[in-house]
Amino acid sequence: MKLNIFKASLFVLAAASVMSCDFLVEDLKSELAPENTFTSSLGFETGANGLYAIARSEYNTWGENGAYMHNGACAYEALQIATDICDQNGAKDGSLTPFANLTLTSATLFVKSYWNWAYNLISSANEMLTFAEENENWDRPTDKPKFQSIARFFRAYGYRTLIYLYGDVPWVEKIERPFKLSFSRTPMEEVLQHIIDDFKFASENLPSDPDSVKPGELTKWAAYHYLAEMYNLQKNYSEAAKAAQAIIDSKYFSLNTERFGAGAKEPGTPFSDMFLENNQNRASGNKESIWVMQFEYQTVGGGTNSDDWTRRAWNPQYFNINGFALADTLGGRGLAQISPMKWWVGVKNTNATQIAGEAENGIFTDNDIRNSNYSLKRNWYYNNPLVPASLGKKCNITDDTWKSGQLFPAITKFFFGKSDNLSLTGSYKDRMKCRLAETYLQLAEAYIGMGEKAKAAEAMNVVRKRAKAPNLEPEQVTMDELLNERIRELVGEESRKFTLVRTGKYLERVQKYNQEIGDKVQAFHALWPVPQDIIDANREVEFPQNPGYTN
Prior knowledge:
The protein is mostly helical.
């Protein structure tokens, strides 16, 4: 049974957050006010639970339980589209369209949602930090640094999103009393250093042993993982390498190279095993996961119908083809709001016309298990017994089925259906937020930054060995090859926009690979506009808009 600390409702968050249409307004009321809650270790545990809940609500869709993401597609998909990996097809959800065609404005839905989500996480963390300094009633001497480290981790986590999406943003580290109308934009480089300082504090004070904490709880290694990423963004490559290497040297984690967990006796691979239901946490035998968000199906502490619609975004609408019926083995009811681009997934088993330089298997070598039908479902067979003439026969993927969203090679990481509710909305499956394979790729990114291609190849080859892909030689290692490797390994898991912005490759890769907007994208599109509500609310000081956007 999941711990209900990870299902803390957003009502309980009144104990730890500031809620308003403006981004750092304080609204203290009821017996759940911070003054009444943050008076003991138990109260801080409640506040910490609230931080986990806000962090998870990034994946919420319809605003269930008061979450900040709402309406239409899963907001997380706005960080995938308009990059180099996916197109908008199928349902063509209107909430994604402004991102897909680069018509987003300061009033676009998710532009505001992400800002509000991040600052609610930050303000809740600041609330905890303020009262942690005032409180003297701790159960154990280690409780104060423990809760401070959780708060600082999540503050850094929120600011990480903000600088990737908006660049310069206000750095706020205390409760504002009275409410302030004169925030200014702190330079991104300064905010980034604060983020690093917070993750460093967390790395020094969070628990070390991942087997000593409850599923989903943070350890110092999650902080180290994000430290490596932030140091790479800062171009402090030597420190990035040290942070990534610390995780590897800890010996707590290892890549999954043998079959494990649920489905281990069924056809599959060690890679595909990680994405089966119940296989994300260490108890399943998965020693690769560093931090896992908890969304488990029909479990106290699990997900809701509005949580993590990634499955619906990436999976085709096969059920609209005569001869198919909804099935859990086919991932349930997808909406095909986005679909993979042919350049990297390839056009194997389709009648699609190949573009110049496009391989049948895309960017995969023949034996790469990440390209097997257990990871990229390329072969589809009619399954509806009510249409016996086609039952069991293969349904070919075509240009038309791909473009319409009815059938295309599907990323099985997000397959999830339950026979008792095949139209299930949420994924209801725990989500690996960071895992060791990405740590190795962060290490490789650091070595590329230092010009040490042999060491970068060594790090990438650890990941490729598990995938049964051939080793790369140092001369083959480039930032583009690393970005391709991240697609092979992490497609859909990573925030692709973040990765392209961090590596300075956003404009180049979108121009090269995104045929829909390649001739339209400009450098300023790497950032989103600042929400208009924020500019309007900051009445006492001018709050400039990002270049390229108008108010």
